[in-house]
Prior knowledge:
Blueprint: E1 7-9, E2 16-20, H1 24-34, E3 43-45, H2 49-53, H3 61-70, E4 75-80, H4 87-90, E5 95-99, H5 104-113, E6 117-118, H6 133-140, E7 146-147, E8 160-165, E9 168-173, H7 179-183, E10 188-190, H8 193-197, E11 218-220, H9 225-242, E12 249-253, E13 265-268, H10 275-291, E14 296-299, H11 308-319
Parallel strand pairs: 1-7, 3-5, 4-8, 9-10, 11-14, 12-13, 12-14
Antiparallel strand pairs: 1-2, 2-6, 3-6, 4-5, 8-9
This protein binds threonylcarbamoyladenylate and magnesium ion.
Threonylcarbamoyladenylate binds at residues 11, 13-14, 16, 40-43, 76, 78, 90, 93, 95-97, 101, 119-121, 158-159, 161, 172-173, 203-207.
Amino acid sequence: MQKGGTVAFPTETVYGLGANALDPKAVFKIFEIKKRPTFDPLIVHAASMREAFLLCSEVPEIARTLAKKFWPGALTLVLPKKQIIPDLVTSGLSTVAVRVPNHPVALELIHRARRPLAAPSANPFGRTSPTSAEHVWNDLGEAVDMILDGGSTSIGVESTVLQIQGDQGILLRPGGVTLEELRKIIPVSTVTPKELESSEGILSPGLLKSHYAPNTPLYLVKDSFKETLKWLEGKNNEFKRLGKPWPRIGALCFGQAPKSPLISALVNLSPKKDIRKAASELFQAMRKLDKMEVDLIVAFPVPEMGMGAAVMDRLRKASAGKNNLKPFFE
Ligand code: TXA
Ligand code: MG
């Protein structure tokens, strides 16, 4: 780390690809390895609240209150940055995203490096995030100097990114800390994807519409499993009449999902409808379906409450707006 190397390490959310945040050359390696565009800024990880806020030029009282409540943990705070943070880390923005991860290996690594670590998720840009060391190895392999194996991550989706403006918060990315939890402490506004993408909205340039994508096209349908199955039955009859081969469909479900001969592979995020369990299984499930060599993945919506917001955000981006099965079957 001190010599400018890169280390992949576990956090409670997903695995990160870390480098010394104060060394632009080291940070550049992260962008190269991930093939990440440099307009997408990185999160800086510190071992304590004190060290995290040392990187910020202003720390409003409300940021301290949130940090005390949620750190170490899955909350990233966006605050005005100090000069020592290289522009490459923040993509030239005047703010920096900071968080203290809640994982003994991550904390020990930062501690021993004696430097804050810039670390995005340890996956190629735009693809499914890694929740185990094996995922990192499969995705990045020897491009990384070292991979620390801390088993599977517990939360399984990335941290919540919250920009602090005055005594308010702006939610830039839903994640491990829920909107409901934040709103108990601070008024939080949300931004529409349009606002995030607009040229003025350099709020969070990395929050692209397409992200987290598996290799197989993923469709996030609006209907329930039952309704979709009914529609597929109609299509299947049509295909039979025309003598067309039926595609291999992988289903990504939540809650009740009976088996059907029309579906080749089924991964249930949580048959018991436990949304935290679903979040922790999400990326692993996408990878599993990818491996099963299906022609398309049909994902079903989860209730958009609590951690459900983060799960739906990831599914929407993984689908890149594909929410209608019709075009696939034409
Ligand atoms: O859970 C996590 O946050 C994981 C682990 C490794 O800590 N990291 C992670 O990093 O998800 P990454 O690079 O995949 O996502 C960082 C997000 C991006 O959407 C980026 O646009 C946003 O944070 N971000 C970083 N700096 C920002 C800033 N100064 N202003 C606004 N958004 C920022
Ligand atoms: Mg990422």
